[in-house]
């Protein structure tokens, strides 16, 4: 009898294992990766993930992925997303774990790397939303103290050997689709953001928020001040990228991970500006980094709402027209 029980138990385990192994993985059509959430995924103050979650995954069942920062959520249409964590290592480690999870098939997936960011006042403003045209790593090179170099010159020199890692040009046709589908989205604004903009003399800083494109600069250093902002622009131009428009902490690293297994033709970086990368002419950089109560930029809630509003038309278009998108980015009508 014990032998029979043993055989039956082994047979049951084998059948269960075979059933699991034979289960079809989820075909991911679009994956949205955010970097942080403030509290819960719904019902409280929204961070980067909440508006996406409420639009696509409110009824989803979270799936824990070993090695990922937070669970993955998917809906019936193949739209999946997760909070990846802040910074290069945190976010890219999560992305790697998710890509390697056998529960998912990313072979035809599009990726939207979504979050908040800073912008130079000469090129953008609070509540702007930007599609990245290039992703540039701010950190891969040599740096020295300003007093140890030529007066007024950059304190950065790229290091050889990082050419394949330090920048990615994102698919212009895909970026074009993203811009075409979002250029007429009505962006939210706030009185506090409008008031804060007027502290800056730049026309771009004082303008109403809009959808823009440009280089997204990825650095673990949360750099501030006109000197380091100018250095970011110097690096972008040194590498042949577009004007530096966004400072963020994850996109180039996540793109590198995706590139190892799937390439970057289906990767997009989507960022909303919640701060300027430098103070106004009447404050020092340290004062800008540590503002007094009531002296912050405002517009955070509006910006994270804008990000989803700008990104969703592309997500919905890909899903609704999957027969045209699954083999690659279709040509746009001119």
Automatic annotation (TrEMBL):
GO molecular function, one term: catalytic activity
GO biological process: nucleoside metabolic process; transmembrane transport
InterPro entries associated with the record: Nucleoside_phosphorylase_sf, Pur_nuclsid_perm
One of the Pfam families matching this protein, by short name: NUP
Signal peptide (UniProt feature, chain positions): 1-21
Keywords of the record: Signal
Entry keyword annotation includes 4Fe-4S: no
PANTHER family: PURINE NUCLEOSIDE PERMEASE C285.05-RELATED
Descriptive protein name: Purine nucleoside permease
Source organism of the structure: Paracoccus aestuariivivens
